[in-house]
Amino acid sequence: MLSGLATALAYTEFRDIDDRQFIRLSALKESEIYIQSFKVQLNQLKQLSPSLTKQQRWLVALSALIDRREALFEQLVVQQQKQRSNLAAQAKLVTEIKQNQNSVRQVILTLGANEEGFLKSHADYFQTGFENRMVLELVGALSTFILLFGIYGLVSYQKTKRQQAEARQQSLVQAKALSELKLQFFSMVSHEFRTPLSHILGSAQLLEETLKPLVEPIKLKNLYRIQASAKLVTQLLNDVLMLARADAGKLEYNPKQVEIQTFCLNLIEDFHLFNESQHTIQFSRQGDRTHAWVDEKLLYSILSNLLSNAIKYSPPLSTIAFTLISKTDSIAFQIKDQGIGIAREDLGELYHPFVRGKNAQKIIGTGLGLTVVKKCLDLHEGHVSVESEVGVGTTFTVNMPQSCDR
Predict the structure, then answer these.
(1) Cα(247)–Cα(227) distance, rounded to whole angstroms?
(2) Which domain holds residue 335?
(3) Is residue 20 in some structural domain?
(4) In-domain check, residue 72
(5) Residue 40 counted as domain residue
(6) Buried b (16+ CB within 10 A) or exposed e, 157-185
């Protein structure tokens, strides 16, 4: 804008210059006024563009031309004031002034072109800056929205997790209350049934003792059925009560040092006393460990259930292999029968309560024995494995870890 004003002033100053105007002294004085005005405009333009190197270079050149023009006018004024002026010298000065005028005009035009380019570049810069700001503002708005949405999602997630945790806690409380109620119920039922069952079993055994010398063994079949049914119901009550205690977290675990071979031999003797089918339980031992850190009652329940199943699902007069395997850091019990075996598809459901194999439906049983084994074994931090083939037999292996210092 200032460059355009300077250009207008320069054209006003020089538009009618010719040889005759320089003869009048008044015209020379007027030109000097224009030059001073132009110099003021030039100084203002320098102050407005201090950081533009290219513009400053042209402004310095323009300033030098104006200074030279002022000097030429002063010389021409001196020539006019002389009584005998040198016309040849005046003509030379006029020629230099016109050349100077053309140079000034070129510099001013260049300044104007540079100023237009500068303004255009600044306009492009500000337009780009405006667009960038718009993009940044849009990105900022989207980022803020995403952040707020993320915070909302996190709060909702935390709220949902808290509600789920509260629901689980409530379910646990209800499950615990139900387990305790079941334990109370089964304890009461077990207590109420044990007395009459004991009377039935005791009376049947007395009748057997009395009638054995007088009656043929085949006629005592129904009496044996009474005893077997009483034992079955008693075992069922024991298993159900133990599972109820385990579910309620009330199943006691009291480990101590047990002489393990003696324990196994006593267990086998108990089975021989109550085993009418006369199965043979063949005991063997591997390793030289004599004692194990176990809960004697729980271990009895584990091994008695496994031996009972082996006898139940094996043909009469068959052999049950019972092996004690002792190591430095563990102790294992292996029970192998020659029974009906377990189908492959039933292996994954063995330890669920009341679940029995498809080929065992015709044999009397409750489906609780292996569940009891698993619950008792969990308290020992042990595990049970099984290998079975239908029609060939089944092998259960129970393993319990033992600390080296015990």
Answers:
(1) 30
(2) 252-401
(3) yes
(4) yes
(5) yes
(6) eeeeeeeeeeeeeeeeeeeeeebeebbee
Q: Residue 20's CB: how many other CB atoms inside 10 A?
A: 8
Whole-angstrom distance, CA of residue 383 vs CA of residue 375: 10
Both tokens assigned to 23: 């003869």
**β-strand pairing of 319-326 with 280-286:** parallel
Average pLDDT over residues 115-126: 59
* Whole-Å CA distances, 310 to 34, 63, 320: 129, 120, 7
- Ranked by mean pLDDT, which of 42-46, 163-167, 260-264 comes out on top? 260-264
Is pLDDT of 329 > 70?
yes
- Helix/strand/coil (H, E, C) string of 316-352? CCCEEEEEEEECCCEEEEEEECCCCCCCHHHHHHCCC
Among residues 11, 56, 18, the alpha carbon closest in space to that of 34 is found at 11
Contact 327, 287 (CB under 8 A): yes
Q: How many domains does the chain have?
A: 2
Range from 61-70, 121-130, 224-233 that averages highest in pLDDT: 224-233
End residue of a domain, out of 93, 120, 135:
135
The token pair at 138 is 């849009």
pLDDT at 23: 44
pLDDT in tens, 189-234: 777 777 888 888 888 888 888 888 888 877 788 887 888 788 778 8
Domain-located, residue 85:
yes
